[in-house]
Structure formats: structure tokens, C-alpha cells
């Protein structure tokens, strides 16, 4: 029987942080990479902000064994598009994930799909040229148009993935606790909402027991929420990670950086 695998929630920001090796987030990615290797996990399931299912009640699971990474960003210098990060999704891994999710409230659908920048940018910093263990990406549930509904679906997806940990398969969510690119780069606002929301976000995830589920859902009702998350996708991967944890497992905060409209926090269970 494999040892129970850990969970991580990371913030991935944007591609520039891949090259900013002195940024605290970059250093945190490196630390997470070391922790993943040290955990001796058999494989890694990654849920990124940049892949959402289209049909309600479904999630998508990559079945491409040697997936080609996706450069899902625009107007960056050429060397950004020269970056390579090799991943491998063996048949057994996609089979195990699909079989496991088939017993949940989500209907898994197999699709060929490469890792987006929410996966390969932080993991390239963490691991270098290639992932040292098998990796499969699973999508977020389909967006509903209601933030609270989306939050509950993300927590439920995490709970559905939880049993994979008993098979030595670690879970990693990749999003951003505060993510308003217009304000961060376009001068749309001062980002003063970012700090209060980031603190509330960490307080929610650091709460004890099942109360942190309620606290995470309540974040969608905070006055800063729509400024911190004009759309919900970057908010949700942390909730998938939280949902994969048992109530008795304490949350360890790995990083907390208030950068206004682009706030960072990372966690481990």
C-alpha cells in the first residue's frame, strides 16, 4: 500500500515569474518541487485555473501520454515560447483517475490536452526540464455563472479526488488568491482590495476542521471578491486542494505576499 500522498495549493501568477528567480513565489515553487520529490508520491494530479469543463456535472481528464504544452498567453517575448517542460501521463494514471471519478458526482471525460501555463510555468521552476513523476491534468468543473456554486463544485471535486491520495497520488491546485490583471497591469485600480481579501483567504484555509469549507464559501460574499476575482477560475484551484484534505489535516501556509491586485499564497496539507 502506497503512503498517503500530500496536497499542495500554489499560486502561479504569470509567465514572467518563471524568469524572476529572486521572487519569493519562484523560490516557493522550488521548495514545493523538492517537497513533492521527497514525498515519494507515485504521481501527481494537477488542477489549473486555465482548464474548465464545458458541460455541467463533468470534468475533463487528459489522456495524451506525451502531452504538448500549451502557450496560453499572448504578446510576450519570443523566448517565453521557447520554454519546454516535458510531462508524461501514462495510461494507468489516466485510467485510475477516470475510474475513481466515475464513482463521484462528476462524470469524467477523456480528452487529449497539453498542460497550460498554470501547470508548466511553476513546475518548470520547481523541477527544471521535465517532471520527475507521472502527471495528469484534470479540469475544473464547468463554470455556472455563480461564484458560490462554483466554490462548492470545486470543494466537491477536491473531495472526489481525495481517495487517490491513498494510492500515493498527490493533488496540486494552481490558481491565484487575488487575480485582477486589469488593475495589476492596466491601471484599472489601486489594488487596495487585494490585501484584505488575501488575508481573509488565508484565514479561511487555515481555519480548523470543516469550518474552513464554510469560510472558503463565504469568501464569495466578501465585498472585495468581485474585484479580487472578476472571474472565478483563479479562485477555485485552492478550494479543490482544500476539498482533497480531511477535516483533521491542518493547513500549512507556505507563502503569503500581498502585491495588491495580484496576491500570492501557497499551502500544503
From TrEMBL:
Name of the protein: Extradiol aromatic ring-opening dioxygenase
Residue ranges occupied by any Extradiol ring-cleavage dioxygenase class III enzyme subunit B domain in the UniProt entry: 23-253
Ranges in a coiled coil: none
Keyword Metal-binding (UniProt): yes
UniProt keywords, alphabetically: Dioxygenase, Metal-binding, Oxidoreductase, Zinc
Entry-linked Pfam families: LigB (PF02900)
Organism expressing this protein natively: Tilletiopsis washingtonensis
Family indicated by similarity: Belongs to the DODA-type extradiol aromatic ring-opening dioxygenase family.
Residue ranges crossing the lipid bilayer per the database entry: none
Cofactor or coenzyme needed: Zn(2+)
SUPFAM superfamilies reported in the protein's UniProt record: LigB-like
Gene3D superfamilies: LigB-like
GO function terms (MF aspect): ferrous iron binding; oxidoreductase activity, acting on single donors with incorporation of molecular oxygen, incorporation of two atoms of oxygen; zinc ion binding
InterPro entries given in the database record: Extradiol_dOase_DODA, Xdiol_dOase_suB
Amino acid at each position: 500500500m502506497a503512503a498517503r500522498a500530500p496536497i499542495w495549493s500554489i499560486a502561479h501568477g504569470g509567465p514572467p515569474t518563471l524568469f524572476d528567480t529572486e521572487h519569493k513565489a519562484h523560490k516557493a515553487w522550488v521548495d514545493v518541487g523538492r517537497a513533492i520529490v521527497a514525498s515519494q508520491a507515485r504521481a501527481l494530479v494537477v488542477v489549473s485555473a486555465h482548464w474548465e469543463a464545458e458541460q455541467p456535472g463533468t470534468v475533463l481528464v487528459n489522456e495524451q501520454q506525451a502531452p504538448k504544452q500549451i502557450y496560453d498567453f499572448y504578446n510576450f517575448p519570443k523566448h517565453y515560447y521557447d520554454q519546454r517542460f516535458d510531462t508524461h501521463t501514462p495510461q494507468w494514471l489516466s485510467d485510475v483517475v477516470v475510474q475513481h471519478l466515475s464513482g463521484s458526482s462528476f462524470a469524467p471525460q477523456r480528452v487529449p490536452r497539453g498542460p497550460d501555463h498554470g501547470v508548466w510555468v511553476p513546475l518548470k521552476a520547481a523541477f527544471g526540464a521535465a517532471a520527475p513523476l507521472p502527471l495528469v491534468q484534470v479540469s475544473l468543473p464547468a463554470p455556472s455563472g455563480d461564484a458560490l456554486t462554483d466554490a462548492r463544485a470545486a470543494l466537491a471535486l477536491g473531495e472526489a479526488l481525495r481517495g487517490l491520495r491513498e494510492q500515493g497520488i498527490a493533488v496540486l491546485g494552481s490558481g491565484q488568491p487575488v487575480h485582477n490583471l486589469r488593475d495589476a497591469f492596466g491601471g484599472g485600480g489601486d489594488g487596495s482590495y487585494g490585501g484584505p481579501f488575501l488575508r481573509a483567504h488565508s484565514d479561511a484555509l487555515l481555519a480548523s476542521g470543516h469550518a474552513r469549507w464554510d469560510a472558503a464559501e463565504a469568501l464569495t460574499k466578501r465585498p472585495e471578491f468581485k474585484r479580487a476575482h472578476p472571474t472565478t477560475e483563479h479562485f477555485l484551484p485552492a478550494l479543490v486542494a482544500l476539498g482533497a484534505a480531511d477535516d483533521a489535516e491542518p493547513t500549512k501556509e507556505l507563502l503569503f505576499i500581498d502585491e495588491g491586485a495580484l496576491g500570492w499564497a501557497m499551502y500544503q496539507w
